[in-house]
Amino acid sequence: MKEEPSAPEELVLIRIVQGQMEAQIIKGRLESEGIPVVLKYEAVGAIFGLTINGLGEVRVMVPAQVAEAARSALTEVQDEEA
Fold first, then answer.
1. Which segments of the chain does DSSP mark as H helices, in order?
2. Residue 34 φ/ψ, nearest 5 degrees
3. Against a cut of 0.70, is the pTM above it?
4. Which residues lie closer than 8 Å to 73 by C-beta, 6 or more apart?
5. If 0-12 CB within 10 Å is exposed, 13-18 middle and 19+ buried, where does residue 56 land?
């Protein structure tokens, strides 16, 4: 019997940041908690390092079922830094 392919996981936006560096730090933090992360961004901003008019904008996305855990993990980091 052929197995049906699973539906792609619904991704939700948990944060928008400016620049790849901050996005990669957030991604590393969440992945260390076992939370998968997808970064969505315009290629032009990444290639040329532009951060104007939304070109440096990076959307941090996670599967819907772990979105609350991801937000909580990021809130903990903010609290530690304060």
1. 20-32, 43-48, 67-81
2. 85, 20
3. yes
4. 29, 30, 33, 35
5. buried
Q: What gap in Å lies between CA 43 and CA 40, rounded to an integer?
A: 9
Cα separation, 82 vs 63, in Å, equals: 28
Write out pLDDT tens, residues 28-48: 999 999 999 999 987 776 666
The pairing of strands 38-41 and 11-18 is unpaired
Show Cβ contacts of residue 25 under 8 Å, excluding neighbours closer than 6 positions: none
The CATH number fitting domain 11-81, selected from 3.30.70, 1.10.10, 2.30.30, 2.60.40:
3.30.70
**Amino acid at residue number 37:** V
Tokens read off for 56 = 């440096």
d(CA 19, CA 62): 18
Residue that is written with structure tokens 């903990």 in the block: 76
Tokens 């996005």 identify what position? Answer: 23
